[in-house]
Amino acid sequence: MSRLAIIPARGGSKRLPRKNIRPFLGKPIIAYSIEAALQSGLFDEVMVSTDDEEIAQVARKNGASVPFMRSEKAADDFATTAQVLEEVLGRYKDTGKEFEVACCLYPTAPFVTGKILREAYQKLEEGSFDTVFPVLRYSYPVWRSLRVEDGKASLNWPEHLHSRSQDLEPAFHDAGQFYWFGVERFLRQRRLFTDNSGAVELSELQAQDIDSETDWKLAELKYKLLHNIG
């Protein structure tokens, strides 16, 4: 079965300039995603989709391929991940190369490992899911969450005012690291989350959104804790 890793890494980043190749504990953050994909042993090719020559050079230096540059349309602020993936798969098809399964692996996901990628891929295959992605459990029950309007707080679910936390169903959110998907189903539905998506659960140390300087520092601290780095 032919498998492709697609790492989408455009040059523009409003909140953290040059985020995709910014040094994370000594090496470009995108290098972690490339290494995880290569070390998993799952892929026929690990490629980076970018519109930026510097990112392309860093990607190649760390072992990924950049067979073509991303189009302007797929690199603007409004392009979706699905549109980027469609472009990549279409460009490969034009050259006579097609893949049965692919993984969209984000460039700012230093916690991803080959082991996690293999676990998620196994779930995709054994569960006949459209897609599989990692999730995190909310540390506090969302059923006891509040909304604040004009300074006044009220419960979103007042029926749970007196519910014990341990009696409430756990809730999860997308970890924002990667998505495994069957190519044929994806091209038909053009979505990475469907009514037939599977999930693998991560611990809080295995993920961190990185959208601000504080996020970046937290991610580095978590990584050090996870890998026992002093």
TrEMBL record:
<dbReference type="InterPro" id="IPR029044">
    <property type="entry name" value="Nucleotide-diphossugar_trans"/>
</dbReference>
<dbReference type="GO" id="GO:0008781">
    <property type="term" value="F:N-acylneuraminate cytidylyltransferase activity"/>
</dbReference>
<dbReference type="Pfam" id="PF02348">
    <property type="entry name" value="CTP_transf_3"/>
</dbReference>
<dbReference type="InterPro" id="IPR020039">
    <property type="entry name" value="PseF"/>
</dbReference>
<protein>
    <submittedName>
        <fullName>CMP-N-acetylneuraminic acid synthetase</fullName>
    </submittedName>
</protein>
<dbReference type="InterPro" id="IPR003329">
    <property type="entry name" value="Cytidylyl_trans"/>
</dbReference>
<dbReference type="InterPro" id="IPR050793">
    <property type="entry name" value="CMP-NeuNAc_synthase"/>
</dbReference>
